[in-house]
């Protein structure tokens, strides 16, 4: 790779970094030629300025090549060689991600002058610009996605998924290669976009996870010792200053003014600190980067105590904004005004907006993770935010923290701005707190406005009470509005009624609208009912319309009938239609039937077309036969295809066989490929080998990236081993990293140590942070201490997520202790307060204890 890119240790700043040149791009291409690009327009951080060094010079200091640059060169070599590739630099704020990409652009231009264009979509908004022009992207285009979460996780997750799907299509479109997609993400954003949710939960980032798989290149938070040594040779006063005064090798952060930013924040006067905290809260709870001045002005007084508020001068706001906007050694201040460009002068652009410094946003997310903003913050948002999608995003943040009244306020504001989907979310919120009547009214209102989710809900409600005709009417309305899933439900309804012909006609109608799932669902229903002939006919109809899954079902039937040759042909056809897992699934079936040779042949065939699961099965087989090197190579291939779990499985098998060093190597490789679950195993392996500092460092690094699971597991292990001091420190680190379960674990430790007051305080902090179990723990703590009234006060006086859990925990505890009267009093109180399911729970309780269930809604 060094042949075309070069391997200089320190690169001089490129000429266009000092004085950008501007050439007109060819009209048929989007973006700009690399020589016409400006690093600051591409959001590379401006470096600090030094007193006594004010002579004009390059905007950027010389660049020091680091380990991640070599990895970037490898990716770029594929692109300049004619293949489309994507890479994602993952690192904290101001770690040098965009600068690394900027230097990569210069190396690409040096290798292939004039060939590549850079497209940076951001106008009118990043996701809108990206989605609007993705289909216009042609060969030799570099797509610049700095802060990729703004594209892949906008307030409307459907928009982000469409962008991710479009990027996947681009990467696999041979007619448009070569392309190079350059993305950056903070570690916490990488985790939220790539972590796989519980199978029972919605998967809002499925497309994003797929497009990001295998693209991660970590950018270290600090320079390695060898990098620092090369830095000393640079003839630039900014680099020399950074080398002498940066904290533990954090060179890029120093150059971006981050230490000064923190000092400015921590030592800010009260009003300026309030302004910055409002901006931090807005960003961490889902507001876009452009923060309205009205929010800063109207919310910040609630962040001040009476003494500080009464001490302010009449010009306090201007003073605070001036302080927050003042530059830090030439870089942006904590909160700076956004100047609209001439092309953006529109009513929205006339509203003054401000931007929070990236580094402060990252620090603030962690340091304010346990705090919930005051009333004025939410009231102002409801009044000044005009975008209903933003309001819905803020509502979700409030709901996730158990603040249902604030969530309701945001949803209502969104409905007033025209959002029908917010009506549906309001209805779900009312359902969650037991207001079935209010929820139903909201569903009906949304249904009248044509929301298909609401129509489907009403249909299901009518169906449950036996009104099949009413249910069918609502489903037909939803279908007429374009919801093909309503046709599936309607087909199921007709099938249940015994009208097979109507069910099939509806399934075919859904298939004609592009939803082949309807035919498959109907076929499977008939299969379960024993009507195999009709089921096979439906599978054939789905197959004729292009369903690879239907072909797989037909292949399985041939396999069961002994016609393995025809089964092979069908799965091959299924694969060609897009179901790349079909061959491996047939192989799995043969493996279960004892045909090891036939299964291996199919697995190899599937592996040849890149099926990650097949590669994993072959890797495991190689390990069983003692071929560790072969198994590792196959697992690496599977990871290249997005399945890094194979590496982790092999590592676990090596660990079980006693090869602990081999296991560590494979766990590390799995983690590098995005298998975050492997971190827990690697940490505990270091711990069992008595490498205590190594285990702790790994766990803390993961917590800093937004995942404290390994740290909590390590803390629990040390607590069980009797090392209480170390355990407490680790629990606190997890809590400071934003994981509320760390607060619960720390509270439990304090409770076991007899420090009841500290435990209570920690449980309440955990509840404030949104932990669903904290109130239950607190109620039981008071109950065990003999404070029955205090335990009930937790249930009745607190609000938010976790109250129902606390009520159930307390009721279960009292019943187990034989306190029949106390348990019944609790259930009656829950009924009186409208708790969901409390009446049914009381009836079941009375049956268990020999009582008679009777209506009672008073205490």
Could you explain the architecture of this structure?
The chain is globular, with a radius of gyration of 30 Å. The strands form three sheets. Strands 2-5-6-7-4-8 form a six-stranded mixed sheet, with helices on both faces. A three-stranded antiparallel sheet has the order 9-11-10. A two-stranded antiparallel sheet has the order 1-3. It has 859 residues and is mainly alpha-helical. The chain contains 48 helices and eleven strands. Helix 7 (157-172) runs parallel beside helix 9 (206-212) and helix 45 packs antiparallel against helix 46 (803-816). The model is unreliable at 1-27 and 852-859 (pLDDT under 50). Strand 5, helix 5 (126-133) and strand 6 (141-145) form a beta-alpha-beta unit.
Q: Which radius of gyration do the C-alpha atoms yield?
A: 30 Å
- Secondary structure tally: strands: 11
* Percentage of β-strand residues: under 5%
* Cross-sheet strand order for the largest sheet: 2-5-6-7-4-8
* Cα shape: globular
Please give the share of residues in helix: 55-70%
Distance between the termini: 77 Å
Count of helical segments? 48
Task: Provide the low-confidence segments as ranges.
Answer: 1-27, 852-859
Counting helices, strands and paired strands, the structural category is mainly alpha
**Rounded mean pLDDT score:** 82
Biggest sheet features: 6 strands, mixed
